[in-house]
């Protein structure tokens, strides 16, 4: 189903485009297919990856990597999500790349999200990934607790220590009693919080949902 969504997103790619590339397994499929398309059709596209993982994959698939310095306004950003609600608010950051993902999504003229149907939920309800400056962690945890949130530092699978983002920061998963997008935007304005994984619907142009019987586009 991820493949179906990724394939559909490819239909929006045009020659000469500057493409923002998100992170995660759905985007990985998109990047591989994009590489094939660019080779086959001899397209001239440049990509701006949002993680080292995506950057390496893009290079291996023959894509020309660029940056926001050269192209501060990419034409289209394609990214995955961990949860999507009916209004098209998202939670992202399962892979810890949320800050660069939010920057490139916001910078781009269009932001398209590719998900399999398991990501569609009635209400956002998962812990919110948050990138935190290590120096500020104790303070951020305390402040969030005062505001009613539970902050869990993400540790590596083998529990060898905190997960470190591509930007050198901690990632925490913050439990909220209710994911109220506007309240989160207000409450998470804490010094030391670099960015959080709630992407409000105003950022999202469309969501491509991969289903067994084809792709559904939600605007
Ligand atoms: C990474 C992300 C990913 O887009 C999100 O976790 C979805 O990943 P996948 O396509 O593997 O389900 O936000 O930080």
From TrEMBL:
GO terms for biological process: D-ribose metabolic process; pentose-phosphate shunt, non-oxidative branch. Keywords: Isomerase. SUPFAM superfamilies: D-ribose-5-phosphate isomerase (RpiA), lid domain, NagB/RpiA/CoA transferase-like. The active site is at 101 (proton acceptor). InterPro entries: NagB/RpiA_transferase-like, Ribose5P_isomerase_typA_subgr, Ribose5P_isomerase_type_A. It comes from the Archaea. Catalyzes the reversible conversion of ribose-5-phosphate to ribulose 5-phosphate. This is Ribose-5-phosphate isomerase A. It comes from Ferroglobus placidus (strain DSM 10642 / AEDII12DO). The gene is rpiA.
